[in-house]
Design goal:
The protein has 926 residues and is mainly alpha-helical. The chain is built from 54 helices and no strands.
């Protein structure tokens, strides 16, 4: 290991040479073998100095403390600990250390100055704390006082929320009995006071495990659940956010470090389980409002299933299934038209179905899925009762909910003995509510083609019978949707129509009629859109629908209503109308083979050709589809599932196909709406949304299309399209979009670098495809002003500069302009590049001459600027250039008469000649 004294001396040499890593390594080795306590104190003190230089302040403080433990009067160790503690923000402890130093050496100016400075800082900090404490008390006095001035109270509430969102302010509120005072605000029962208190609590516990734990214990989970359950949408949403902040802090999702305070919280598992159980109890509590129930389900959806399937721990899902699956099934099975049902919003049952689906998807093996299925089967069997029709209704409604959630599981349950028979029996019931539930279940059951075939043979006559006999519009429309769904079982395959010619158009006409009828309630009109979602597989129906502007506008207005369960159906309809669904590639040879072997070959409808699709897109834009889409994107994540997001992304991409339409898309907020779709959802959905963003960013002014800070969020989706797995068009449009962004400001250029786009852009500069190579070079031209990019060209051992020089010699004018522009800026910014240019390729001089002789003034100007930069950079290089044919070229251009079009090139040539003359390389002509 070596002698500790020798290692210490070696470490000192490294320290003096500013080699702090090597010095620390020597001291560490010496510490391991040193047995002399005095030497050990010096080694720890010296290593603390290394850590201070490397800005590892916690380690520096620790080593200095070890030295002080050995020798309490070690003045160097005391001062080093003082420096480290100051950097860590522990001013009072740093002050004590420097005070001891000043006591030992009272005349040391450094110690006295540090003592004075730290004293002033501590006084200032205390003053701010006292001021904050005073402000907090004043706010609570106003809020809890008898003063009826509404504006004053509103201002105090807003100030309290802002203060709670700052870490220092949150700590002062917490330390000054703030939680109890916030509870008093909640107990006033006034909505604005409750909202202020809940939002302040969210700020206090955000990212702080100790404070979050304290709030859970001081307020109590029961109390928080009672606030979440009130019939006030804004309060329910704010309390949901508070629960999320608490959950993130306790589960460690928020990674902020709070030192000793964190160590006080030993285990949060108990509290997390208590929160989950409380939320599951809320789900079936009759005293909980519909908004509260929605938020409880949303919290479960967000926090129980794994966000990353690679994470091996799915214990929360198993815990929820064991303790709450039957409770969620109870919500799904509610029949709003029956008495004594749980309070719900229009969205509650769909949110519950989404949760069921996410829980099922999170299971990892067949035994776990079998257990899930057995619980569902047992629950549904337990509800079948020949003497109680309401219980049977609940069972069938639960099956409907499962068919909207984990469909495969719902399909299996459909095969259970008695389920299909009960659905048929309910269809024949005289009670309208029975018929309604049964018809809805039939509709959901016929989602898959195999099941639809079964129902076509067994259920079409039943649905037709109900449709003809019933006088209730609600049942009539549902029966019609069932027929629509069964009629479209062949998808967009023209040859697989289930019904006779013209039948689907008649069904669609009836759906449009109901859709446009304002006298029918929203929930029933929603089913008309469901019908159109299936019927628009038929191109005749699509064409008729987009021509019916009142029907389109009625659908768009419905999509903006509070009932968000309609979103999936609207998205499906729009995907069908724009033909933006996934299309299988038709290989002619395989078609011939299929025909020869008498296999079925899908046929395209004549109205599904490109010109018809373009007309439909124009009609949708005219009817206001963009404002409807932007509203749909803002819906809650529990309703706006990944599949729905993917469909909306597909529609957006179809709408951005024609550059002429980008203006209307941007004006109605389409650019902003695409950003969340490009960042979240399925992989296919994110790619489609990113491609649509690229199309807009490539042409529109990005500052108008993506106002404010949103513009920085566009970078990541565009960079994701540079992946070699994406197709050429996506690469090209992403590069054009990034070119546009890079031209705006330095912050955007740094964001592009941060997202690791540079290697991809450089790779596409090698691309054989002319347009992609041009787009990559133009992008590099805008990025080259960034110092970090310039440094990449200065690095040794790569061909980046060689490629740029060779691209200046390309035959493609646009590539030449971009490459020459990049090289001109690069040689102006980095003089070393000028000499490096002469080494990368033997053709460099020939390429420069070609640029200077180019017939396009902009290319010629860039070439002469490069020559100017090279002459200016190095006298030897200037001599080499002037001795070549470039002198004659520059002279001819410099002697030309002034011309607005060619003036930049003429001026640049004259400047080159002036510098050459100043360097003594040429003499003035007399």
């Amino acid at each position: 290991m070596g002698d500790p004294i020798q290692l210490k001396d070696e470490g000192n040499k490294h320290f003096q040479a500013n080699e702090y890593d090597k010095a620390a390594e020597c001291y560490t080795m010496a510490i391991k073998v040193c047995k002399d306590k005095k030497v050990l104190a010096i080694l720890y003190r010296n290593r603390a100095a290394c850590y201070l230089k490397k800005e590892h302040y916690a380690q520096a403080a620790s080593d200095a403390s070890r030295a002080i433990d050995i020798d309490a009067s070690d003045i160097k160790a005391l001062y080093r600990r003082c420096q480290a503690l100051e950097k860590l923000g522990k001013l009072d402890q740093a002050f004590k250390d420097v005070q001891r130093c000043a006591t030992i050496e009272p005349k040391n100016k450094t110690f006295l100055e540090t003592l004075r400075r730290l004293g002033a800082e501590i006084q200032g900090k205390l003053k701010v704390q006292f001021s904050t404490d005073s402000r907090v008390q004043t706010m609570f006095d106003i809020l809890l006082g008898d003063d009826a001035d509404k504006d004053k109270k509103e201002k105090a509430a807003n100030n309290l929320i802002v203060l709670a969102r700052e870490d220092g302010g949150a700590e002062r509120i917490f330390q000054n009995n703030g939680v109890n005072l916030l509870l008093q605000l909640i107990d006033t029962g006034k909505p604005e006071m409750i909202l202020a208190a809940i939002r302040a609590m969210s700020g206090i516990c955000t990212g702080h495990k100790a404070r979050a734990t304290a709030i859970v214990h001081m307020v109590g989970i029961e109390k928080l659940c009672s606030i979440l359950g009130v019939d006030h949408e804004e309060i329910a949403l704010a309390t949901c956010n508070l629960f999320q902040c608490i959950y993130d802090s306790l589960s460690g999702k928020d990674k902020r470090d709070h030192g000793k305070e964190e160590a006080l919280v030993l285990d949060t598992t108990k509290d997390l389980k208590a929160i989950l159980l409380a939320l599951l109890d809320m789900v079936i509590n009759k005293n909980v409002s519909g908004h509260g129930r929605d938020q409880a389900l949303n919290l479960l959806t967000k926090n129980v299933p794994r966000t990353n399937k690679k994470d091996p721990d799915h214990s929360k899902t198993l815990f929820t299934i064991d303790h709450g699956l039957k409770k969620i099934l109870k919500v799904v099975g509610q029949v709003p038209d029956l008495p004594d049902q749980l309070p719900m919003t229009d969205n509650t049952q769909l949110i519950a179905s989404v949760l069921l689906n996410k829980l099922y998807d999170d299971l990892r093996c067949d035994p776990e899925r079998d257990n899930y299925r057995e619980i569902c089967q047992e629950y549904i069997k337990g509800k079948f009762d020949p003497k109680d029709m309401d219980k049977n209704l609940h069972a069938i409604q639960t099956v409907s909910g499962l068919l909207q959630g984990p469909f495969d599981l719902g399909n299996k349950i459909l095969g259970m003995q008695g389920v299909m028979e009960m659905m048929v029996a309910l269809c024949g019931s005289e009670r309208e509510v029975d018929q309604m539930v049964a018809v809805e279940a039939l509709i959901h059951a016929s989602t898959k083609m195999s099941r639809a075939t079964f129902i076509i043979t067994n259920g079409v006559s039943l649905l037709k019978d109900i449709y003809k006999k019933t006088k209730n519009e609600k049942i009539k429309i549902r029966a019609l949707v069932g027929l629509c769904k069964l009629g479209s079982a062949g998808g967009d395959d023209y040859s697989m129509r289930q019904f006779a010619e013209g039948s689907t158009e008649k069904l669609a006409k009836q759906c449009r009629k109901w859709l446009c009828n304002p006298n029918i309630d929203v929930r029933t009109r929603k089913w008309a859109v469901e019908g159109l979602a299936y019927l628009t597989n038929d191109a005749d129906v699509k064409d008729d629908f987009v021509e019916d502007e009142p029907a389109l506008k009625a659908m768009f207005e419905l999509s903006k209503s509070t009932d968000k369960t309609i979103l999936y159906a609207v998205a499906c309809t729009l995907v069908n109308c724009t033909n933006s669904y996934e299309k299988k590639e038709i290989i002619p040879e395989l078609v011939q083979l299929a025909k020869f072997s008498k296999q079925h070959v899908p046929e395209q409808h004549p109205k599904d050709k490109k010109d018809f699709i373009e007309k439909r897109v124009k009609r949708l834009l005219k009817a206001g589809v963009i404002s409807a889409l932007t509203c749909m994107v803002k819906a809650d994540n529990a309703i706006l599932t990944d599949q729905t997001k993917e469909m909306l992304a597909r529609v957006f991409l179809a709408l951005t196909e024609d550059p002429k339409d980008h203006g209307i898309i941007v004006a109605q907020g389409g650019g902003k709406a695409l950003i969340p779709l490009a960042l979240e959802g399925t992989e296919a959905g994110k790619i489609k949304a990113s491609h649509a963003l690229a199309k807009i960013a490539a042409i529109a002014n990005p500052e108008i299309a993506f106002p404010g800070e949103r513009i920085y969020e566009v970078v990541r989706p565009l960079v994701s399209l540079l992946n070699t797995e994406r197709d050429g068009l996506q690469n090209f449009e992403a590069l054009r979009g990034l070119t546009n962004l890079a031209a705006l400001n330095e912050k955007l250029r740094k964001k592009i670098i941060k997202e690791k786009a540079m290697p991809e852009i450089e790779n596409y500069m090698f691309e054989e495809h002319d347009q992609i190579r041009q787009a990559a070079t133009e992008c590099m031209c805008n990025m080259i002003v960034c110092k970090e990019v310039q440094e990449r060209y200065l690095e040794e051992g790569n061909d980046k500069l060689k490629l740029l020089v060779l691209l200046c010699g390309e035959d493609d004018d646009k590539v030449q302009i971009a490459a020459a522009g990049a090289l001109a800026m690069l040689t102006a910014a980095q003089q070393k590049i000028c000499t490096k240019v002469t080494l990368v390729t033997a053709q460099w001089l020939e390429i420069l001459q070609r640029l200077c002789l180019h017939d396009r003034p902009e290319v010629q100007h860039r070439g002469i600027v490069i020559v100017y930069n090279m002459i200016n950079a190095d006298k030897e290089l200037a001599k080499k250039l002037i001795e070549s044919e470039l002198l004659e070229i520059l002279t001819v251009i410099g002697k030309q008469e002034d011309s607005p079009m060619k003036q930049p090139a003429i001026d640049a040539a004259r400047n080159c000649l002036v510098i050459a003359m100043n360097l003594g390389l040429i003499k003035p002509y007399s």
